[in-house]
């Protein structure tokens, strides 16, 4: 049987990480390895709960590089099946097993699983034994039923919250582009790279994940600088801008502008009179 590693990048969210680890321990088929990458998180390193660590940069958190580092460690440990799980995600009971079967049956495909966004937890936290009862996958993504596989998936719908691939598919694609630093763009880029490498994309009904609630801002104005910078990196690589919904909302708010050639720029605010 293949050797499976779950790769999780963590920057804070220690309680979410602990809940994720409990959900993985309760899986129908536990992973052989859980590689936790502490990303600019000295507390996580000191606690001994991380596997490898990566420092931050002046531009922000190098999430793409952190994922690549986690995979390098997983491969060093002999993993054949690579499962990527966002630190906020709880693993459904059959997530690891479902991904393993899909990757073994389709080693030339990058597989994604449905993700349910959870409401705020009750006082005692989420009941990991009853996650299936909370199942309500995000409506903007495919949600095959447990036991169902869908191939030929639209790469534009790929997201990095939860996905898996074989070690061979990862090496063919070459991993995440490390030019991206901070929030946004690197997963959309990865889907393009996967397709360019001749690797397929699909969805796995059995690999269900549950995203733990946390406050968010819409649009994510705290990440506007990252998004503008990463959008321009993407445009330089692929000839078009990603994240247009966010960028256009930032434009409406007066935070960014778009040149005639399609280039997005951060608007420098000039302080007005008090």
Automatic annotation (TrEMBL):
Key word ATP-binding present: no
Domain of life: Bacteria
Record InterPro entries: Galactosyl_T_C, Nucleotide-diphossugar_trans
One annotated GO molecular function: glycosyltransferase activity
Pathway connected to this protein: Cell wall biogenesis; cell wall polysaccharide biosynthesis
Domain spans labelled Galactosyltransferase C-terminal: 162-206
Pfam name, any one: Glyco_transf_7C
Alphabetical UniProt keywords: Glycosyltransferase, Transferase
PANTHER family: GALACTOFURANOSYLTRANSFERASE GLFT2 (PTHR43179:SF12), RHAMNOSYLTRANSFERASE WBBL (PTHR43179)
Family that this chain belongs to: Belongs to the glycosyltransferase 2 family.
Protein name in the entry: Glycosyltransferase family 2 protein
Organism (species): Nocardioides seonyuensis
Upper taxonomic lineage: Bacteria, Bacillati, Actinomycetota, Actinomycetes, Propionibacteriales
């Amino acid at each position: 049987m293949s050797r499976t590693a779950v790769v999780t990048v963590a920057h804070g969210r220690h309680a979410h990480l602990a809940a994720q680890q409990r959900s993985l321990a309760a899986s129908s088929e536990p992973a052989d390895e859980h590689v936790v990458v502490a990303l600019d998180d000295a507390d996580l390193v000191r606690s001994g709960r991380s596997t490898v660590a990566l420092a931050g940069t002046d531009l922000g958190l190098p999430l793409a590089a952190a994922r690549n580092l986690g995979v390098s460690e997983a491969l060093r440990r002999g993993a054949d099946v690579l499962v990527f799980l966002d630190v906020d995600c709880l693993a459904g009971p059959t997530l690891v097993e479902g991904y393993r079967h899909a990757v073994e049956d389709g080693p030339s495909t990058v597989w994604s699983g449905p993700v349910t966004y959870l409401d705020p937890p009750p006082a005692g936290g989420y009941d990991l034994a009853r996650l299936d009862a909370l199942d309500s996958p995000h409506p903007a993504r495919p949600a095959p039923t447990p036991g169902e596989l869908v191939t030929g998936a639209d790469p534009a719908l790929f997201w990095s919250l939860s996905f898996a691939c074989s070690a061979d598919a990862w090496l063919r694609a070459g991993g995440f582009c490390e030019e991206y630093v901070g929030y946004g763009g690197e997963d959309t880029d990865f889907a393009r790279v996967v397709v360019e490498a001749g690797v397929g994309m699909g969805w796995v009904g059995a690999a269900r994940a549950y995203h733990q609630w946390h406050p968010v801002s819409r649009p994510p104005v705290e990440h506007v600088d990252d998004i503008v910078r990463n959008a321009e990196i993407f445009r330089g690589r692929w000839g078009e801008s990603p994240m247009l919904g966010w960028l256009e909302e930032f434009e409406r708010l007066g935070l960014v502008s778009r040149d005639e050639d399609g280039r997005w720029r951060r608007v420098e605010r000039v302080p007005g009179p008090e």
